[in-house]
TrEMBL record:
Gene3D superfamilies: alpha/beta hydrolase. PANTHER family: PROTEIN SERAC1 (PTHR48182:SF2). Its main location: endoplasmic reticulum. This is DUF676 domain-containing protein. Coiled coil: none annotated.
Length: 152
């Protein structure tokens, strides 16, 4: 009948990213998740998940598992609203690792998180470092050095 199944799109940004600017074109200010994607996926709801991922000026205090637990808590709350909508994740960089970890936690606690797993129909990884990244280590080290030097 031409009607699309309702879907929730959850965007998870990368290291040093932002839940809005990561997905926004710097020149024209268009946030493609909000301004373009809905014309391709009618009826989709778009959510962004943000976490404190700054490393250079503000070293990471939380860890990927901490971010993943926060994402999973947000997803459980979304499912508790009675939503039967399918979920698709769009993850950039470290956001892909956070998402994968959240899905692992959901699998390990299916009693509380089964609806999160059942609703997931896909994950889009954009530059996710599935095998790790030496850039993360270098950036963290540089950030710590800068913090030490700026404190003296």
């Amino acid at each position: 009948d031409g009607t699309a199944e309702p879907v929730d799109i959850i965007a998870v940004h990368s290291l040093n990213g932002n839940p809005y600017s990561t997905w926004t074109h710097p020149a024209n200010g268009s946030m493609w998740l909000k301004d373009i994607l809905p014309s391709y996926v009618p009826g989709a709801r778009v959510f962004t998940f943000g976490y404190a991922s700054r490393t250079v000026r503000n070293p990471l205090i939380a860890t990927v598992p901490d971010f993943a637990r926060a994402l999973l808590d947000s997803l459980r709350n979304l499912r508790q609203e009675g939503s039967e909508r399918a979920t698709i994740f769009v993850c950039h960089g470290l956001g892909g690792i956070v998402c994968k970890q959240a899905l692992v936690f959901a699998h390990l606690d299916q009693k509380r998180s089964g609806a999160v797993l059942d609703s997931n129909v896909g994950v889009v990884f954009l530059g996710a470092p599935h095998s790790g990244s030496s850039l993360v280590d270098v950036e963290g080290t540089i950030g710590r050095v800068i913090n030490i030097l700026s404190a003296t």
